[in-house]
Specification:
797 residues; ten-stranded antiparallel β-sheet; 29% strand
């Protein structure tokens, strides 16, 4: 709900309030954002939120001679510019035709509409007129003919407010914009902790939590993508906040390129937060009548800790970011060919994989890299999207038909934004790459980046991909992008517009993605960029899921997926079971742990089923059947975090952390079912006690709690088997292997019925873990890297 009275503006969601007003000087003073508060008739009581002024502090600059009480350096503002005394980070920076950089945007007008206004060239959130209202504040520069719109979209039921800024050149002279951020929020105190998510290839979403101190924190990326180095997701919380208690602000950005997140404590101890396009290296020329739009920023607040905040984000993404046919469809279980064969693929191998996949219940086979041109390694043929007849003699359609006949759908890998120098495309169009003429070019993965600033390049990609996607019954596309951008230069733009390249690249990408997803609405698209190098809300606006990481090691994946879960729902995160030793870490982890962790995502396998033993294939068949039973809950339920492998700054001080345990729960929308998991890193000797503590159940409902019952291979107990065997069994002998096939050790069984509040408040004391003093079915077999799935089903009283 939006209330506008006498230049006061109050934006309300079901649990939060956001308020600001117009100062006598014409600037917008931010008043409040947090837990929902009430005002009387005519917004009675809102003056309580206003800071009281008398004389400006010493050594500051007053805005004008009519208002000696105001210095913009000490005001909580909705937006700020260079000039007039605010020395903190500005929202917008403009170089005018006269060379001046001072701007003075003052309130002019406002407009409220049901529904929302879309951006011209970028994706935005969406909603019906019953779901979203939009407030537009119009600001006009007092001295120059420029206009700035601040747009606020209120999603009342989701406790989310989005913001963006649109700058318009209304004058006859050109202006150069060197900064246009999406959102700025000033808070009256600075006692907050900042959580950000950093990493690298195969180390995505490492969580870092630190106390905000004086000065400024600047996160972000210059790599041309939203980046595994610094995800756009950013959180602010009060000290002492836990997963389920305390106030948390969440911020994200609907953008897939260079971005920046800035947190600053100014000279008067007020905290400023902003995000948007990375200003470093950015400039944009606006001619008369032209506009520049900032990407949409997403804000939410919850009093219920980090789980409450992420619950808001998940619901918002599911309902107002992800769109199309796959928005509410369960995601298929897939088998990807990459770790099974890498580039060494052919029709015969793929059909065998498809038949093996069908036998265990897998629904989709994905042919990864290596199917086109002369693509036998990563040094050639990118850009030449024609099937290799040596590998696929019957083309894509012939292969797809055979895979469909085997009983599974067919998917394909592409990397349309890239080109190898050793390719027909590059030889024909060397000017189609981002490269500075006449200087040596830096390459990544032996490839270059196509210039998506150019419409002819965009059209080529649309046409080439349309030919591929329309040539067979393709049900799924993995869209990869395997290198960051370095040399920002487009031969299609003049020298004074090269600062626009990074942003124009993203706009070109969005045009391509929008066109293709609308042309092929039945295809399930999954984004990928060397794993999670472009995991953001911009991509999710077109592709309903993104490959979370090239790292499929289960223990690494637990931390990576835990990090993603703070801002992104499970079904948007591609997660697969792979072979061991793991191809990224060489770690051996149990098959059941690989399954348990991958099942909390868009689930699949990344291994060679044709090389697996009968026992492994039987286990996978059981896993697939189980996932089909629980995927409705996992893909559409609410996820909650408990303990975590995270051991970053402040963790032991403020969170109930045991960095040896990872603990998750997903609860179905009607709270009738829940799936839980615990996983551990290394065993602690003589530490049999363990518990599981679910979150999100109906406290007044009765639930039946069970675990996934497992039988264990006696070889996992080593020569302890000789403590009970009537004859000596030598390790890995013929006798040992025969016994291992014939005899399985029963695992523990959990079987408890209690009310939801008992489970949530007291936790569930699990069967004791193996401690070296005995084993039977009362003992939990829980070695290094073990895990367990738990199920809670509501029962009638």
């Amino acid at each position: 709900m939006i209330i506008c009275e006498n230049k006061h503006f109050v934006l309300s969601t079901k649990s939060t309030t956001y308020a600001f007003w117009v100062l006598p000087t014409g600037q917008l003073e931010h008043l409040y954002y947090g837990k929902k508060i009430k005002f009387g008739p005519g917004l009675q009581g809102i003056d309580t939120l206003k800071e009281q002024w008398a004389f400006a502090p010493g050594n500051t600059v007053v805005y004008d001679n009519d208002h000696w009480e105001y210095t913009l350096e000490n005001v909580r503002l909705e937006m700020s510019t260079l000039g007039h005394g605010d020395y903190r980070e500005p929202l917008v920076c403009i170089t005018h035709a006269d060379g001046g950089r001072t701007s003075d945007f003052l309130y002019s007008d406002y407009k409220v509409i049901k529904g929302r206004t879309e951006l011209k060239d970028m994706p935005t959130s969406y909603g019906t007129e019953d779901e979203v209202e939009e407030l537009t504040i119009v600001l006009k520069d007092k001295n120059y003919n420029t206009e700035l719109e601040l747009r606020y979209c209120v999603y009342e039921e989701k406790d989310v407010i989005t913001r963006t800024a649109v700058l318009r050149n209304c004058g006859k002279n050109d202006i150069t914009v060197t900064r246009l951020m999406s959102m700025m929020l000033d808070m009256k105190d600075s006692d907050y902790e900042l959580t950000t998510f950093h990493g690298a290839w195969v180390r995505e979403m490492g969580r870092d939590r630190r106390h905000v101190s004086h000065g400024k924190y600047v996160g972000g990326t210059m790599s041309g993508v939203s980046s595994n180095k610094c995800n756009p997701l950013m959180l602010l919380s009060k000290p002492g906040t836990t997963q389920n208690k305390g106030g948390v602000y969440g911020f994200n950005l609907v953008y897939s390129g260079n971005h920046a997140e800035i947190v600053e404590i100014g000279s008067h101890d007020k905290l400023r937060v902003m995000n948007g396009i990375q200003p470093e290296g950015f400039s944009y020329l606006l001619k008369e009548g032209e506009t520049l739009e900032a990407p949409e920023a997403v804000m939410t607040y919850s009093e219920n800790g980090f789980n409450g905040m992420s619950g808001n984000m998940h619901a918002f993404i599911r309902n107002h970011i992800v769109r199309g046919e796959w928005k509410n469809k369960v995601r298929p279980i897939l088998l990807n060919s990459w770790e099974a064969a890498y580039f060494d693929i052919n029709e015969s191998k793929l059909v065998k994989l498809a038949k093996a996949a069908a036998k265990v219940g897998i629904e989709l086979l994905v042919m990864d890299d290596g199917w086109f041109g002369e693509r036998n390694d990563d040094r050639r043929s990118l850009g030449d999207w024609v099937p290799d007849k040596k590998k696929l003699p019957n083309g894509l359609k012939g292969l797809c038909d055979k895979i469909n006949e085997a009983g599974v759908d067919f998917g394909i890998w592409v990397e349309p934004e890239m080109v190898n120098v050793d390719s027909n495309l590059y030889r024909a169009h060397p000017d189609w790459c981002l490269a500075v003429p006449g200087i040596n070019h830096s390459e990544g993965r032996s490839q270059r980046v196509l210039d998506l600033c150019r419409e002819d390049v965009q059209d080529y990609i649309i046409d080439a991909m349309s030919e591929v996607f329309g040539s067979a019954n393709i049900a799924y596309v993995k869209w990869d992008m395997n290198r960051p951008i370095t040399d920002y230069y487009s031969e299609s733009l003049p020298a004074d517009r090269q600062g626009e390249v990074a942003h124009r690249y993203v706009l070109g990408l969005y045009r391509i993605m929008k066109t293709l997803t609308e042309k092929f609405p039945h295809i399930l698209f999954e984004g990928c960029s060397s794993g999670g190098n472009r995991f953001d809300l911009g991509i999710l606006s077109y592709f309903p899921q993104i490959w979370g990481s090239d790292n499929t090691d289960a223990i690494c994946r637990a931390s990576i997926q835990d990090g993603y879960s703070y801002g992104y729902p499970p079904e948007t995160i591609g997660a697969h079971v792979s072979n061991c030793p793991n191809h990224q870490t060489l770690r051996e982890t149990p098959l059941e742990t690989r399954f348990a962790i991958a099942s909390f995502g868009a689930f699949g396998y990344e291994c060679n089923l044709c090389d697996m033993s009968r026992e492994e294939l039987a286990a996978i068949a059981v896993q697939v059947a189980l996932y089909k039973d629980m995927r409705q809950t996992i893909q559409f339920g609410t996820m909650y975090r408990g303990r975590s492998f995270y051991s970053g700054a402040l963790s032991q001080m403020h969170e109930a952390m045991d960095d040896n345990i990872c603990e998750w729960t997903v609860v179905s929308p009607d709270k009738s079912k829940a799936v839980g998991m615990i996983a551990q890193t290394l065993v602690k000797a003589n530490w049999p006690y363990q518990y599981y503590k679910p979150v999100g159940l109906d406290p007044d409902a009765l639930y039946h709690f069970t675990n996934r019952f497992l039988k264990h291979n006696i070889k996992e107990f080593g020569d302890l088997v000789n403590q009970v065997a009537p004859v000596h069994v030598r390790q890995d002998s013929l006798l040992h292997n025969v016994l291992a096939r014939m005899i399985k050790m029963d695992g523990e069984k959990e079987d408890i019925t209690a009310y939801g509040d008992v489970f949530m408040e007291a936790g569930i004391n699990l069967k004791p873990g193996f401690g070296g003093t005995g084993y039977d079915d009362r003992v939990r077999f829980f070695p290094d890297f073990a895990s367990r799935l738990y199920f809670m089903d509501k029962v009638e009283e």
